[in-house]
Amino acid sequence: MRDHSHARTASDGDAEVWTGRARNRMQWLLATAGAACLALGIELAVDSSWTSGVAALLMAVVGCVAAGLLVLFGTLAFVHVAVKVDRECLEVRCGHIGLPRRRIPLSHVVGADFAPTVTPRQWGGWGYRWRPEKGTAVVVRRGEGVVLRLGDGRVFTVTVDDAEAAVRVIRERLRLAGA
To answer: Which of 44, 52, 62, 106 could serve as a FRET partner for 122 with CA atoms 20 to 30 Å apart?
Structure first.
């Protein structure tokens, strides 16, 4: 479940970029359940005799297909998260196509903290979450995370491996920007 993050130097030599990832292989199990539900809906549509009750069968087919697509795409979006910190911003990209995506300019950040344990239970599940008392989070697995305090009073949390290194890089950027 751990991908080790690393800092790398960009090709121009003066801009260090920190990148990190976090994965949740359990999401693949949920995606499989969504695919199975989708397959059941297709199977019902193709192999059922539509003479026994069109309305009930149509509702079953549409329900299975809709639930399958929702679960399948909803879970695949949060199989992993990629986090990048450069001179200007922190960027979070989810899933294989990078959506949803969140880009937070470091000029909007007033502080960064390391959270040793962020759990889906704290946020109401996996995924892109919002809780009025806690702020916004991208939670793909249980474990360490980065907590950003923004200038407008909001808080953003993301689970990522080697979050302590990310916090150090962000704090250094904030220190340099303030100097």
So the answer is: 106
Question: Which residues are within 8 A (CB) of 150 and not within 5 positions of it... i.e. 6 or more apart?
Answer: 104, 108, 109, 110, 156
Query: How far is it, in rounded angstroms, from Cα 90 to Cα 60?
Result: 44
Token digits for 79?
């199989």
Fill in the amino acid letter for 132: P
- Bridge-based pairing of strands 109-118 and 80-85 is unpaired
**From CA 139, how far away is CA 131, in angstroms rounded?**
13
Taking the CA atoms of the chain, what radius of gyration do you get in angstroms?
Answer: 21
Half-sphere exposure of 42 (CA within 13 A, CB side): 8
Angle at which helices 54-76 and 26-47 pack, to 10 degrees?
Answer: 160
Residue 139 tokens read as: 């939670």
Query: What's the CA gap between 106 and 149, in Å, rounded?
Result: 10
User: What is d(CA 142, CA 160) in angstroms, rounded to the nearest whole number?
Assistant: 10
pLDDT of residue 109: 97
Backbone angles phi, psi at 76, to 5 degrees: -65, -30
In this predicted model, what pLDDT tens digit does every residue of 62-117 receive, in sequence order?
888 888 888 777 777 778 899 999 999 999 999 877 888 999 999 999 999 999 99
Question: How far, in whole angstroms, is CA 47 from its chain's centroid?
Answer: 37
